[in-house]
Amino acid sequence: MKKKKNYEGIVYSTAPDFEFQNEEPEEDALLPANQQKLRVSLDRKQRGGKEVTLVTGFEGPKSNLEALGKMLKIKCGVGGAVKDGEILIQGDHRERVLQILLKEGYTQTKRSGG
Known about the structure:
This protein is an alpha+beta fold.
């Protein structure tokens, strides 16, 4: 069975020169490292008591986020994942991840509260 193309609401066109143009969703523009506002935190929620270092706030294409996640996992020598726009690093590696990000050109933002 042949799969139908998704024309998103276009039923019929009488224009003889009509040509459907499929609009690909644009990827987020990659901000330079010094303009990224990444947050490094420790998370234990819904993980059976296991700790993960969570890096959030990345703005850019998913491929760049995955590359950053892979680099962090390699440099920390642990496993992890990239899910829902977040980087998960197994274990409490907040200080190490922060130092790696600073070395890569990311800036440290001031934390509010205590």
